[in-house]
Amino acid sequence: MNKYIEKTLDTLKKKNSNEPEFIQAAEEVLLSVEPLINNFPQYEKHGILERITEPERIITFRVPWTDDNGKVNVNRGFRVQFSNLIGPYKGGLRFDKSVNQSIMKFLAFEQIFKNTLTGLPIGGAKGGSDFDPKGKSDNEVMRFCQSFMTELYRHIGQDVDVPAGDIGVGEREIGYLFGQYKKIKNAYEGGVLTGKGLSYGGSFARKEATGYGLIYFMRELLSKEFKQTFEGKIVTISGSGNVAIYACEKAFQYGAKVVAMSDSNGCIYDKNGINLDVIKRIKEVERGRIKEYADICPGSEFYENSTEDSPIWAIKTDIALPCATQNEISLNSAKKLVANGVLAVGEGANMPATEAATEYFIANGIPLAPGKAANAGGVATSAIEMSQNSMRYYMSFDEVNAKLDNIMVYIFNSCQNAIQKYNLKNNYVAAANISAFEKLATAMIAQGIV
Length: 450
Fold this sequence. Notes:
alpha/beta, Rossmann fold, seven-stranded mixed sheet, five-stranded mixed sheet
């Protein structure tokens, strides 16, 4: 290992020993950019690795709110503003009981590279709270969002930091957050949040963007690596939120057959192909659990989670699309997928494969499209929404979708260029990290020690 990388990682692990997710994300990037570090010794002189792995700002705050019974509850809020090297901080808000500082830092760190890969002028950030909106009434969610924004508004702005949605934060939550921001600021700053409703500044195709973008990236990968298309392929998709639903929709449009989806309780398997209308009704309208699908669709089966390994990864598939959460594919699950003949894996979630699983896929020649490249469609369309807000102009669905497609092709080509330049074979993980790192390091040197 390069001595500069080894020294930086050693220091990083000592300083952040209680943040395993952040260490995992940072280690993956630093190890994969070794060819760059070897070629450009001036990076050490400029302290690039130390600076790029230290967030510019971490904001933590108390979020008190009252439930429908009048009881006062307190949650913790976060915003990690990691880098604004190439544009205002940009990244989602996550409301989930798993949220802590390590997860926020790992997501914000990943966001720097993801946003850079899009070619758009946006920096990297992430935020959220350990508040869980599941089972809460609309009024409870509204009161929480208003309290959360009462503190967050001080740290964001359309030229400073532009949050969006993530797990637990959809159009409902963004609406409540934007309403409170507007009231506090006494100004209509449409570009301060993305993922807004179409009636007040949102963009067409934003809801579909991450899932569609994932399929656009995988379409390019299948064509390049196998000279094949989605036509006739069997696909399994973990999760059943926006990313999973619209990846499923676009995969169907390309002629694939999606046979399995999941949520935190387990997965459903339908050998005839998922009925997406039923999934949308359960998840987008009724906010229910995916096991209800098996009661509605004859011939389908529900497999409950009984171990840390989701049963979805034991299902034979051509293309696996993890779209749920971090570290959902363990080494054991990766071995099952490879043994069952998986062609390729595309990360719709952020860092859904563990470090060991990632290494296993690469060692066995399975192309793994990393989340920072493959799921960048969401933030790319958020940036398009920001542009529309600045211009006070709406683009049509087809216009936004065409731009999204072009951006995903651009990201794929950037990865391909790095693969060829550094002889990375089909290691898309290293290619994505190197491609983004080069641009970030150049910007960091140009802007001085700040």
